[in-house]
Amino acid sequence: MNFFTVGFALCALKFSMDIPLTYIIKLIGAFFMLGGYKEIEPLFDSFIKYRTRTAAAAAASSGGLVCSLLAAFGILKGTAQNLLSIFFGSAAVVLILFEQYGLIGHMLSIKELVNDNSLTASLQRTWRKAAFFTVLSLIADICYRLIPDGAVRTAAGTVQVISLLLMYIYIILTASAINRVRCDFNITHPVI
Questions:
Q1: DSSP character at residue 41
Q2: For 18-40, what is each residue's pLDDT tens digit?
Q3: Distance between CA 8 and CA 12 in Å, rounded?
């Protein structure tokens, strides 16, 4: 559960779709998640099905990393860069949110996972707020990229900045919530 917790928090982070660091962090998070599944699977083999979702998110992050590096070196420019950034950035975010939504629901369904199931319910409530602001910032980012200069584009940029700030706050709270789940999990299932 230790690797899983780190991976969950890293995958949730989102920056601009043009920054390679966004995709590098998501890839590192995906690898931590895969390691976390290896940790949990001896106790709960039902987590195996989430490996493919993590691999899909890692693939989208890899595509985004390649595109952002091509753009950084000036090989990819203009509309093509914008469209590919939107595609891979959106795909990575949506796949990770889909994976995390399923994981939290699965964790809630396993009553033996932790002693205090209210910790998992608290994680779900906090994650929903983080997911809301993540989706809002993604939509604002897409609008900002597609709308020509003007007042609407400025408004989209403002919404993006505010939603990113709120998203970071809720990601920190989500990381704290999943860490509490991790601590209870480690007490409930000590490593021998």
A1: T
A2: 889 999 999 999 999 999 898 88
A3: 6
Give the other-Cβ count within 10 Å of 111's Cβ. 8
Write down the pTM of the prediction: 0.90
Q: How far apart are the first and last CA of the chain?
A: 15
Classify residue 74 as left (phi > 0), alpha (psi -120 to 50) or beta.
left
2 is written with which tokens? 């230790």
Domain boundaries, the chain: 2-188
Q: What is the mean predicted confidence (pLDDT) over 106-124?
A: 92
Q: How distant, in Å, are the alpha carbons of 36, 56, 70, 112, 127 from that of 84?
A: 30, 17, 11, 43, 28
Q: Are 30 and 51 in contact (CB under 8 A)?
A: no
**Residue 86 C-alpha from the chain's centroid:** 16
DSSP string, 116-144: -THHHHHHHHHHHHHHHHHHHHHHHHHHH
DSSP state of 44: -
